[in-house]
Amino acid sequence: MGNKRLIVLMLGLICFFILMGLTLSGRTSFYWPEKFLKDSIAWTQSLFYRPAASVSGFFEDVSKLKTIHEENQILKKRLTDYALATQQLNSLEDQNKRYKEALEFTERQKQVSNYRYRIADVIAASPDPYNGTITVNLGEKDGIKPNMAVMNVDGMLGRVLTVTEFTSNVQLLTDLSDTQANKSKAISATVKGKEYKSGQNQGSYGMIQSFDKEKGLLIMNQVDVNDRLEIGDTVITSGLGKVFPSGIPVGTVVSREPGDFGITHKVAVKPFADFRHIYEVFIVEVPEVK
């Protein structure tokens, strides 16, 4: 009996909704029971629609966040690769420029002297620009010997101090000292255009014996008070003493003053070479006189 009533109630509701649908179709105005029923249904639908939309939006946002993260990682890797490639390109361009300058330098030197310039790469150096020594990748097997002069395209750098089979230690001019404990050798120097000639009382002459690390200047002593050397002159090696060959540019005269006892003058020379950035050097090989 109860089942029959339930069936009758359901059939009644179905008929009611069918009848309402037919009644509402095509009409623009409704009676208040119809409005109440329509609003009630819409409100009930909104209760289920909003949470469902929120849940759907949450999962959609999570999916988008994952996609953005993956794209961000890809872009970050591309940016890193680009920065690395740019750095390598700049390094190669820098190296190519230095090699071109080195080639032009050797070609120029062939016209003024018969020295042989052996190019070597610096393989070790102290981070201190005034540490005093560097290591290059040429040694005994390449014919390198102690006391050979070392320079770059700008000017004098120093001399070969010790040699092994495959490498050489180079003592830079920044390590020059006139103390007895130091193993540095003084550089016999003259002025370009006012070259000193042995046995003649003319031309400029002095001995570069130390380096002022605070001012970054070479100190040339034993300059005669009557010497024609002037501020702005270019100092070069004289070749006397047979340690450093003649004609290698050293630097520019920046000051001149009386020495300790007033007998000779002391000259400050600003080096041409930059001792902070040394990548390649030339070891000067002087042909033996037969």
Residue share in β-strands:
25-35%
Number of strands: 12
Q: List the helices and strands in order.
A: HHEEEEEEEEEEEE
The secondary structure category is alpha+beta
For the CA atoms, what is the radius of gyration?
44 Å
In terms of per-residue confidence, which ranges show pLDDT below 50 for 5 or more consecutive residues? none
| Count of individual domains | 2
The level-1 CATH class of the largest domain: Mainly Beta
Sheet with most strands: 6 strands, antiparallel, barrel
Shape: rod-shaped
Number of helices: 2
Q: Give me the CATH fold name of the largest domain.
A: Thrombin, subunit H
CATH architecture of the largest domain: Beta Barrel
What is the share of helical residues? 25-40%
CATH superfamily of the largest domain: Rod shape-determining protein MreC, domain 2
Distance between the termini: 138 Å
Mean pLDDT, nearest integer? 77
Adjacency order of strands in the biggest sheet: 1-2-5-4-3-12
Task: Describe this structure as you would to a colleague.
The chain is about 35% helix and about 25% strand. The chain is α+β, with helices and mostly antiparallel strands and about 290 residues long. The chain has 2 domains: about 35-110; about 115-285, Thrombin, subunit H (Beta Barrel). The N and C termini lie far apart (about 140 Å).
